[in-house]
Design goal:
single chain, alpha/beta, Serine Threonine Protein Phosphatase 5, Tetratricopeptide repeat, 3 domains, seven-stranded mixed β-sheet, 10% strand
Length: 506
Amino acid sequence: MTGWLEKLGLGDAAARSTRAREQAAQECQRAAALFQQGNVDGAIEIFNRAMELDPACFEASRQLASLLLSRGDFDQAEYFSRRALSIRPAAAAAHNNLGNALKHLGRREEAAAAYRDALKADPQLAEAHFGLAICLHESEQFEQAKAHYSSALRFRPDLADPWHNLGILLEQQDDVDGALEHYLRAISLRPDSAAIHLNYAMQLLARGDFEAGWEEYEWRWRLPESRASEAFIDRPRWDGSMPRGRTILLFAEQGFGDAIQFSRYAREVSERGARVLLKCPPKLKSLFQSSFAGIAVIADGERVPAFDCACPLMSLPRLFGTRVETIPAATPYLQADARRTEYWKRKIADRDAALKIGLFWATDNPAKSMEFEHLAPLARIPGVCYYSLQKGAAAKRAAQLPAGIDLMDYGGELRDFSDDAALIMNLDLVISVDTATAHLAGALGRPVWTLTHFPADWRWLRGRQASPWYPTMRLFRQARLHDWSNLMQVVAGELRRLVSPGGHGS
């Protein structure tokens, strides 16, 4: 029989096919060794060579998909995952790779289906449980996500990511203690992860454990995006020692609201005898100049004078040993420009209303923003005139008023926070979502109702209606995720009580 095959040429073809498969398998081993040595490009090149030798080589396609995922080439990872599945349709690892590629490409439903296919092939594949949990988590199917995170940990308790993500999920359900427990488990498995430490820090702060929380919060500087944004990473850092006689640069590191909240410490540093330079975004420069006498305010992009050491504003609570009961909460610590304040006083003097109220309803963060329609419960409350403090694209919605809302829109005249401050000084109350406007009103010592999303940001702590950071602030908290409608009914009820005969302030 062999002779006849050889005469037909089939024996040679079969032998060549066998040799090709063997050579492809050897190339896969070489590629895997290169990958272990950190040579990803070399490994990809040899896996491609293996597929040239044997187009039906499952391992080459599967491994290529994995490597391309690690390199962020998700389109090609999808292609090679599907190629691997065409060779071996029931391969759990290939389905999992496909899920990972599709998830990164933003095709969440397809990714979830791929992870489910992986689990049909291997119900104990922890990585597939984890991937499916992420898809469910992102679509806010929290209980199902929790179940699959837990399954991933049942099969692979040594994986840090499911512990971390389950902590995030519990945090989103306002379970601070549960989140802390899971973050600690994740840290025990991956002690050098800045992201996990930072989430742990914010939950410690939310619980009011400032001593441990501020220490953990310093891990933010190990995040790549944080280090890239710090212009003074290589300069001497102030360690909190007596600053008298030294020039200390304090700089805003995060958003406008954070800069406003923690700028209060600039005066504390100055009062200890330091010459203080305060570096901030340009839109805060005028406000800070009118607020901090004897402190040189420098806008981002301007030349920085010589200094001895630097410190980010949000590291100052740690250096001052701030606890909940020792927050420097005296307000106002910001001052509006007197001429601008007088301008706005004249501008709105003709509005005959019992209460002049500023409104801010949307930020760049969708979770902290409401739709303009959610303001409808504030309509037809007698004796109230509203003023839009809204910025950005959402400000354009102010022209589309819910019926019965008397809203004045001067957004075009609010060029920076000094203008905002001057207008706020002429208002009786500010009602704002959790954004810089709420911080500004509180720092000016003006009455402000801050509307927080669920769960509230760490700085507002848990279970409080008053803020230890701002004595004139009242917190209105969502009871459930995205539930602005019920929250605004509560706010409207409180506002009606405020303007009714016998109402007792804000």
